[in-house]
Amino acid sequence: MNHPPDLTSEMIARLLQESLQAKPKNPGYIIHFPPGFLPEPPRPAAVLVPFLRKGDVWHVLFTRRTASLPEHSGQVAFPGGRSDPDDGTPEKTALREAQEEINLDGSQVQLLGKLKELRTITNYCITPVVGVIPWPYEFKLAANEVSRVFTIPLLWLADPANHYLQSRELPPPYSPVPVIYFKKYDNELLWGVSAQITLDLLEALELI
Fold first, then answer.
1. Rounded distance, CA 146 to CA 154, Å?
2. What is the DSSP letter of 66?
3. Under 8 Å CB-to-CB from 108, ≥6 apart: which residues?
4. Per-residue pLDDT of the chain (208 residues; tens, 9 = 90+)
5. Signed CA dihedral, 163, 186, 156, 143: sign only
6. Is 27 among the domain residues?
């Protein structure tokens, strides 16, 4: 694992920009749905991938969605959601959703760049937006959407011993697809699209 000990915000921004033009280094991690499984055009969405520093250590912030939500209920996720027509850009969508879900003030987010779009099994086309947030921070959770926020160290996420592929069944006649899972951290299970975004981030930063 190549970990720059002095990884800075400027380095992260540069690596993100370069990764948008590069071919995937680990194509086996990319989830492709079978032809015809998602026949309708995807709905645009965006998430915020929040970086923060605890001392000298980079962490990534996640949320746990409430069990009552109609989609991805109870799952570990990034703040985000469907784009509104008035948003105009993925960055505005990500910041608006983060404000609504965890009361994160967008003016305090240092945007660094984006990751490549990816499609979800619920037929969203998600643009992950990466930014640095202040820490510590007093979050106020939208009780109907978010049950918890927590952080995971970047280096723990980058350790190949902490993530793996597992098949997920699809309705007949479609074959199973590989899905990314991380080992539990702080009793939270990161998997699925949020795990895919996390691996895309790690690859962009040349940590895997």
1. 22
2. -
3. 133, 134
4. 444 457 999 999 999 999 998 877 665 556 677 777 777 888 999 999 999 999 889 999 999 988 765 555 578 999 999 999 999 999 999 999 999 999 999 999 999 999 999 988 888 999 999 999 999 999 999 989 999 999 999 999 999 999 999 988 888 888 888 899 999 999 999 999 999 999 999 999 999 8
5. positive
6. yes
135 vs 81: CA distance, rounded Å:
23
pTM of the model: 0.91
Strand 43-54 and strand 57-65: the pairing is: antiparallel
**Domain count for the chain:** 1
- At CA 92, angle to CA 77 and CA 50, rounded to 5? 40
Tell me the CATH number at 91: 3.90.79.10
Residue 3 domain-assigned (yes or no): no
User: Distance between CA atoms of 77 and 64, rounded to whole angstroms?
Assistant: 6
